[in-house]
Design goal:
Strand order of the largest sheet: 9-10-16-15-14-17-18-19
Number of domains: 5
Number of helices: 28
Radius of gyration: 32 Å
CATH architecture of the largest domain: 3-Layer(aba) Sandwich
Strand content: 5-15%
CATH superfamily of the largest domain: von Willebrand factor, type A domain
Number of strands: 19
CATH topology of the largest domain: Rossmann fold
Largest sheet: 8 strands, mixed
Structural class: alpha/beta
CATH class of the largest domain: Alpha Beta
Distance between the termini: 44 Å
Shape: globular
Length: about 700
């Protein structure tokens, strides 16, 4: 039990002197200690804990926090003080010491915004859920990004960092969902088919015209949402009622006319002339903004590219089909067309692609192109269905531009195209948001006969492994306590007889039988490619991966191989060697041969990214097996301290909570000092010979899958 006696000012002063390193910083802590000493022991423990946490991030931020926090306990909730401290530390992570100190000093402003921090919906927390939601709706596959305003450019939906219009957190979540739905409806039901810039130029007050047109479209789209998503529509109307956002009586006739099932954006354009003179209605909470210039610029670029891309894809499709129609002349020009189908799963006018009058099944990318063009234009113009001729378009006009990861790292650091991952700060006891900047790269394949050399070197071992893994593939499992079976389960029978003697009901599960195990396993190999693996360790890793791949091909389990390395949090790299959906072909074998030592051993980002990759695979058992030669480490960074150990441990715990079984195979003789803390007492092994590695993996498979 904690001693309830408050700490003395002298005791507190000693703690603060150590945390603030006053011997070097010359900070005065006596007044802070005296202020904290007047509090109860529970209040002291709370404040001192947070002062120490903040000090692990920056002493000056902690000092400014300690100066103000004791006087805030009387009128500010503890959760708000915690959020204030965390917000300051996050500001330091993003922008440095000055913005963080401003957050601490402007505590009154933060207090006013505390509602947003507690009841508000934070973009970072809900973006994944909202993205999955909008991807489940019909139409174009949209993206989601953060911005200061709520709007869409017809490809990306933009939301603010915090949505806190409602009093309750659950209502703010529904409001966020309504905003996303309204922007989706603009792209899905043709709001942008009208030439908006030309439309508004005819009015004296373009801002008023824009506002009134946006309201007309919102009324039309509400009716569309009511038909498509009636449950969400009812929630949207409830939010409007709570915020007392009533539509003026002069707008009710417009709402009735635009609520017709056959109403289109042309009706909104027609009604604008009359609505322009009506009183300006209040903003609707989920309405957002309409930005015609942004939309038209995005649509112009997309429509030009999609027309070219569709014609190129049709030319490729024509060639594929003609390969299987040898009786037809290759010189005869193909005639693509579209016919309407009777039903449409997406709600769009269902179109079926035809070639020379016969229906054909286009690939998914062609279907998506047709759907996107139809969303923009409301139809597929005939000129879009003419296959492109040889050399008609420069490939740079339609091919996706992908930057070389090595080029992206050069010069001024930026995060374009990178994955951003959090990192657990042990001292702070909280995540650093978007802390690690990670990019995937392909290992450069090396065709040097390494696989053949390895198989020749370990020929006997390979045969043994194949037999072992074949046995695992075909192994049976003994099921006990069954209702029927081949033999009596003696243990179950004894227990049942004992129950009967006591007067209890006797169980009928008295048999045991053999059952053929159906394997459903996905295994991810995470390979340490840090500079410390240079030499025989790198050779051992590559030989092990060759032997494992050969054995797993026999077993039939799905597996992937990725390497990891990097230099500081700003350059974390993951190297693709074999994906789950990639066959074990010559390219993969050459990539294994091409594995070379890189930089340092920052592990948390790699575990988090590969966890997300594994979670996208449907499998009953998922394994994450790390091959490494040492503990977490990085250049000029406190990652090589307890910080790195705790971040890696946290990432492994995240993987376990998602249903993944982590295991580590290491060549570090000192690993027993830290691996039990990371993986647990039985989820690692230390080896010193490559020949032992495949046997260990076989043992792991048996233990985790039986």
């Amino acid at each position: 039990m904690t001693d309830p006696t408050p700490l003395t000012a002298a005791h507190i002063e000693k703690l603060l002197e150590a945390w603030f390193e006053v011997e070097f910083t010359f900070l005065h802590v006596d007044e802070i200690a005296a202020s904290v000493a007047t509090l109860s022991r529970d209040e002291q423990n709370f404040l001192l804990d947070w002062i120490q946490r903040v000090a692990t991030t920056h002493i000056q931020i902690a000092y400014q926090f300690a100066l103000r926090a004791p006087n805030l306990l009387a009128h500010m909730e503890r959760r708000v003080i915690e959020a204030w401290a965390l917000y300051a530390m996050d500001a330091y992570d993003r922008a440095g010491i000055s913005p963080a100190v401003r957050v601490i000093k402007d505590v009154e402003h933060f207090s006013r915004l505390s509602h947003e921090r507690t009841a508000g919906v934070v973009f970072e927390d809900v973006s994944g859920v909202m993205l999955n939601f909008v991807h489940g709706l019909s139409g174009r596959r949209l993206k989601l990004e953060q911005d200061e305003a709520i709007f869409t450019d017809s490809e990306t939906l933009f939301l603010p960092a915090v949505i806190a219009r409602m009093q309750k957190a659950e209502d703010n979540f529904i409001l966020c969902k309504a905003m996303v739905t309204m922007m989706w409806a603009q792209t899905r039901f043709g709001s942008f088919r009208a030439h908006l810039s030309e439309l508004f130029s005819g009015y004296e007050d373009t801002e008023r015209a824009l506002k009134h047109f946006h309201t007309l479209e919102t009324l039309r789209l509400e009716a569309c949402i009511a038909r498509e998503l009636p449950g969400l529509y009812r929630e949207m109307q409830r939010l409007r009622a709570e915020l007392q956002e009533c539509l003026p009586d002069t707008w009710l006739p417009f709402a009735r006319e635009l609520g017709r099932p056959d109403a289109t954006v042309d009706d909104s354009v027609r009604l604008l002339a009359e609505a322009y003179a009506a009183p300006t209605p209040p903003d609707i909470c989920y309405q957002g903004e309409l930005r015609p210039e942004v939309v038209e610029a995005r649509m112009a670029a997309r429509m030009n590219r999609e027309k070219i891309l569709l014609r190129v894809k049709l030319a490729q499709l024509e060639q594929e089909i003609k390969k299987h129609r040898l009786q037809e002349s290759h010189d005869k020009p193909a005639q693509f067309g579209l016919t309407e189908k009777s039903e449409a799963e997406s709600g769009l006018t269902a179109l079926e692609l035809t070639l020379d009058g016969a229906p054909i099944a286009p690939p998914e990318d062609v279907r998506q192109l047709l759907s996107s063009i139809q969303l923009d234009l409301g139809e597929i113009p005939p000129e879009y269905l003419v296959a492109a001729g040889p050399g008609e378009y420069d490939p740079r006009l339609y091919e996706e531009k992908t930057a070389d990861p090595d080029d992206v790292w050069q010069g001024t650091y930026h995060e374009e195209g990178a994955f951003l991952y959090p990192e657990w700060d042990y001292g702070r006891q909280h995540y650093r948001k978007n802390w690690c900047v990670m990019r995937e790269k392909d290992v450069l394949p090396v065709h040097d006969g390494f696989r053949e050399t390895t198989l020749g070197k370990y020929g006997g071992l390979v045969k043994h492994l194949r037999k072992t893994f074949e046995a695992m593939r075909d192994e049976n499992r003994l099921l006990k306590r069954q209702v029927y079976g081949d033999n009596v389960d003696i243990d179950a029978l004894v227990e049942a007889l004992a129950d009967a003697r006591d007067g209890s009901e006797m169980s009928d599960r008295l048999f045991m039988r053999m059952h053929r195990t159906e394997r459903n396993i996905a295994v991810m190999f995470m390979v340490d490619m840090s500079g410390s693996t240079r030499g025989w360790i790198n050779d051992a890793e590559r030989e092990s991966l060759i032997l494992l791949s050969e054995a797993l091909e026999t077993l039939g389990d799905r597996y992937a191989i990725y390497g990891f390395s990097g230099t500081t949090r700003k350059r974390c790299e993951l190297f693709r060697i074999k994906r789950f959906d990639e066959p074990y072909n010559e390219e993969v074998k050459a990539r294994i041969s091409g594995i070379r030592p890189q930089e340092y051993t920052r592990m948390g980002f790699a575990i988090r990214h590969l966890t997300s990759v594994l979670n996208d695979v449907e499998a009953r058992t998922k394994l994450l097996i790390t091959l490494s030669d040492g503990k977490p480490d990085d250049y000029h960074d406190n990652y090589r301290t307890q910080y790195g150990i705790e971040d890696t441990r946290k990432a492994l715990q995240e993987a376990q909570r998602s249903g993944i079984h982590p295991f580590c195979i290491t060549l570090d003789e000192k690993a027993r000092d830290y691996l039990p803390h990371l993986y647990g007492a039985v989820n690692y092994t230390v080896i010193d010979e490559v020949s032992k590695l495949p046997f260990k993996v076989a043992d792991i498979y048996r233990r985790l899958t039986t």
